[in-house]
Amino acid sequence: MTRDPTMTTDLSGDYSEAPILQRTLHDEVAARLRDMIVEGRIDPGSRINEVQLGRSLGVSRTPLREALKTLASEGLVDLVRNKGAIVRTFAIGETLDMVQALSAIEQTCSRLACDTASAEEIENFCSLTETMVSEYGKRNRLAYFKLNQQLHQLLVDLAGNQTLSRFHRTTQEQLRRVRFIDIDKADIWALATSQHEGLAVAFRSRDKSKMGSILEDHLVLTLQRLREATHANEL
Amino acid sequence: MTRDPTMTTDLSGDYSEAPILQRTLHDEVAARLRDMIVEGRIDPGSRINEVQLGRSLGVSRTPLREALKTLASEGLVDLVRNKGAIVRTFAIGETLDMVQALSAIEQTCSRLACDTASAEEIENFCSLTETMVSEYGKRNRLAYFKLNQQLHQLLVDLAGNQTLSRFHRTTQEQLRRVRFIDIDKADIWALATSQHEGLAVAFRSRDKSKMGSILEDHLVLTLQRLREATHANEL
DNA sequence: GCTCTTAATACTGTATACACTTCAGAACGC
DNA sequence: GCGTTCTGAAGTGTATACAGTATTAAGAGC
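Structure tokens for the assembled complex are given below, as produced in the milestone run.
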């Protein structure tokens, strides 16, 4: 018996699924590094000095190196033999690729979700949309942004395909790097919001092709926004 | 100057892009492990003993653990604190998810490729298809199988979206685990082959919707095949 | 002054050592 | 006999040590 028996009896109800989340050091380090890279606190293209970074994080090289392997798999750094980890520079093209990929997943999933989602789930989606619209009404960018991301992910999740959900999640995560280039112009913001409203309506009537075309429009809008932003502000 | 000058002058032509491929130990180990898992040489669900496996591979725990982090990111193993790496068991549902995801990518990419691929590239695709069909004529399963995989990947690559290509590649790689469940029945094999022929024709005329519907049929066929196979042979 | 060579330094790649957790079985009480 | 506690072994998590490679700077030759 590894746990305190009193605890065990306390939990004897049905709490067995509690995740508890005991992170290891390399997990923690990976998370920290991910943030640092994504938020641009480490220059893209720069090499990562393991001893230096390890010291600043207060860990030895071992968990740090393990974390770097994870980040490499996620495409955030490149690993070069005898040079170590190099923070990956995202070409504009790659960003557009990622956005396009996200949209492709969402379009596929919207079709699937029309078949598989329960009425309750769809209502949930719609009410979340409403919340977002109301945040738009208040011009609350941060709340809007978070809800927006949540909605896109929810749409994908409702298709019930774990593989696609995972891919969508990691890609979206990586895009945090460029997400500060966000809704600049009021008219574009308004348009995006109305698209979301349309999406919810189409979802409620399980209209696959309508959802598809709205998402396609949404993609075009995003790409355009990105291209404009990147002209001024080279990544 | 790090290299022997005579070498440098020898290479002064235009060989600078040679990949050379100096793998590190953890890369090598990751590749080996990937194969072992994918080919079922390590039982799904079993824990991986680091010292034991390291000894059998002739490496210390350090590169082995680093390799495991990579495999974990790829979803081949789960990492549990104080228990180490556990070979992931693929539920049937997850396999179906992956197949569906692959098809979704392919459908999206076929549409994109119709716009972006050059005539030459399309011809290349068509001739590869012909090669595969001729292998089908000889009932050469292995060659057929390889070409089949190549064709699917090529179609995706022709869309020119790195993100989608990468995802397609890793997912296909993971599916090697269940690919031994392959074309059992002659009629299904014939049907799949004819679908490929149709795909090439449609691609030549850049007929997006035709390609989409063929790929959808192809998916249905694959799913059906998988379901039948998995009924008999539980994974 | 410039280039090439060479030596020293810094840093990565790998192995080993130590600490802590988990698990299994023995010892013990009842 | 059954359950509980303790103890030891086994194994993972992390830190450190060592080896080999790249890079920088100094020096020699011209």
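Confidence is low (pLDDT under 50) at residues 1-20 of chain B. The two ends of chain B are 55 Å apart (CA to CA). Further analysis is deferred to the final report.
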